[in-house]
Amino acid sequence: MTGNFQGVRVAAFESRRADELANLIRHFGGEPLIAPSLREVPLEENPVALAFAERLFAGEVDLLVLLTGVGTRALTKVIETEHPRQRFVEALRATTLVARGPKPVVALRELGLAPNFTVPEPNTWRELLTLLDGQYPVTGRRVFVQEYGATNPELIEGLRARGARVTAVPVYRWALPEDLTPLRIAITEIDAGRVDVALFTSAQQVRNLFAVAADAGVAEALCAAFRQVAIGSIGPTTTEAIRAAGVSVEHEVEHPKMGDLVREVARISAALIEKKRSSSECGVDTNSWRRVDARWSERTAEPWRDSVFMRACRRQPTSYTPVWLMRQAGRYQREYRELRARHPFLELCTNPALAAEVTLMAVDRLQPDAAIIFSDLLLILIPMGVGLEYAKGEGPVIHRPVRTGADVDALPEVDTAALSYVYDAVRMTRRALKPSIPLLGFAGAPFTLASYLIEGAGSRSFIHTKTLMYRDSGSWHALMEKLTRALVGYVNAQIAAGAQAVQLFDSWVGCLSPADYREFVLPHSRAVIAGVRPGTPVIHFGTDTAALLELMKEAGGDVIGLDWRVDLVEAWKRLGDVAVMGNLDPVLLFASPREIRRQTQRLLAGVGGRPGHLFNLGHGILPGTPPENVLELVDAVRELSAR
User: Fold this and answer.
1) CA-based angle 279:280:282, to the nearest 5?
2) Is 376 a catalytic residue?
3) Domain end marker among 147, 173, 199
4) How far apart are CA 340 and CA 346, in angstroms?
5) pLDDT tens for residues 555-581?
6) Are residues 147 and 194 in the same domain?
7) Do 49 and 171 contact (CB within 8 A), yes or no?
8) Which one is catalytic: 126, 162, 340, 485?
9) Is 314 among the catalytic positions?
10) CA 324 to CA 367: how far, in whole Å?
11) What percent of the chain has pLDDT over 70?
């Protein structure tokens, strides 16, 4: 993954690793302004820690929670003042240990120990409690918590609410630096508009920064100045502290590591700064905004029209190969998973503000060459009254499947106005999206929608679908025509709301033979594509369609999407004069960055810069995909295809 700050000034508030952070900022092309903001002061006398040691030696500690590496080492030093280290180590070995992330793990390793449990990313007290709930219920247990800086009341209360007998073990406290000059200089520079990016690696940095500003009487001015500064946070706890100070966070890293924070923010800093300052100029309060609140001062008519994405759709030369990714917003992202934990999937799709937020989230993080509205193929079936449900762990389920001619006749015509929430999401996204980035609408193709209606869920063999198709072709075509009429209205309503292109997903059509596709599918897919507003590029995509490509082209589309099962160059030869999209195997994103680049180079080299290639995966990004590998792919495409 590459990208740099392009010479902008970056304020950062790290203390213990200040030199390392400054070097990282320089490495990624920034001008560092480092302002140490806190000291970690060991407690001079710590009877609580020594009392903990006595109880540990007596076997009266069921669980020890180690919150920091520094704290683990400090606790060891305190106890070594009264007891041999080896005695302490052996007592820890006989105790259940929980490490809040990798730093306590390293400190334990120095003692020759390993934790029983390690809290997963982003390593907050919430994940700690969730881990204990699932793997080590604490009811009635004696739990000791190595604290750092200050008590975490949410963690202590959370443990007590679960029935634990909790004892806090403080080992050091936080204090302001002895020399406040760097902090005061940083405040002055931010207030004067001479800082472009600010990076925070702990919540206490934020509190101390604003405490010093308040003492100087400039806290309000500092807060106002941050409206022009792109802010990066290392994790949820830090983000909460920034927002509590009345300031926004533009980027929170997927992994709570300092190197990731610098690298990720450097990569997208120019876009973040431009968006924040443009929105501020347009009257948006960028200290309390959401992504959907962004506004752009650009006045050029239809700036997206000459984007690399739209040019590629028209098979015109581009400066590099445009790249966007199916499911570029999804479960591989922590931020998306956190949203899903608060909102059911259907709510994300039907709440316009949430759908727009998820769409824009992917754009902010990846900086792709196109956005695609967050929605679902099957929403258009809801007005048909078939009982669509997104069952947890099972995917979409149709409770009243359509399997007979009478069922088809009973289906109402879809009033596409019932899907106004999709169009509202498109409008909100288009307003907030940078004008030069095209927005894609999308829909399921008639066959895929019909197969869901008939099967009642996903299928491997599509027995019910093919049975209706073969036994009652009249009812089959009536169903497909009904879906076609609905789809034309639905797609054009998305275009009217602000989509610049559309993708038609035929996810299940690969189960058909070419002859069946020609007879039962092609006329209906062609009718949908022919009904799309003229001048709007259509991407026609299906999976497992190697045998159907020529027929899909016959059905229509400015761009034919290819899955990973076909060689892109050979498929393009078969297709001829049409643009193509694809087609890296999504599983490749689980490989090393080096292998991702090698395979990307191979694919691009085969294309040879031919106009009309839109780089994408052969299907959507899979859950569990390392987010950093997705960034690596996007950057690799741009670098390796630059012309």
Assistant:
1) 65
2) yes
3) 173
4) 10
5) 999 999 999 999 999 999 999 999 999
6) no
7) yes
8) 340
9) no
10) 9
11) 99
**In a 10 Å sphere around its CB, with 0-12 CB exposed, 13-18 middle and 19+ buried, how is residue 405 labelled?**
middle
Residue 568 identity: L
Instruction: Calculate the dihedral angle through the C-alpha atoms of 345, 346, 351, 356, rounding to the nearest 10 degrees.
Output: 50
Whichever domain contains 566, its CATH number is: 3.20.20.210
Options 196, 369, 376, 506, the catalytic residue:
376
Strand pairing report for 63-66 and 371-372:
unpaired
Q: Where are the alpha helices (DSSP H) in 308-439?
A: 308-313, 334-342, 345-350, 352-366, 405-410, 420-432
pTM (2 d.p.): 0.93
E strand or H helix at 506? strand 501-506
Q: What is the pLDDT of residues 118-146, one digit of tens each?
A: 999 999 999 999 999 999 999 999 999 99
Residues 61 and 133 in one domain: yes
Domain around 101: 42-173
Q: Is 340 a catalytic residue?
A: yes
282 and 323 inside one domain: no
Number of domains in the chain: 3
Structure tokens at 513: 């033979």
Find the CATH number of the domain harbouring 81. 3.40.50.10090
Which is catalytic among the residues 39, 331, 427, 565?
331
Is 295 within a domain?
A: no
CA-to-CA distance for 1 and 344, rounded, in angstroms? 33
**Is the residue at 4 inside a domain?**
no
- Indicate which residue of 100, 263, 291, 327 is catalytic: 327
Name the residue among 216, 161, 140 with its Cα closest to residue 185. 216
Is residue 136 flagged as an active site residue? Answer: no
Residue 574: active-site member: no
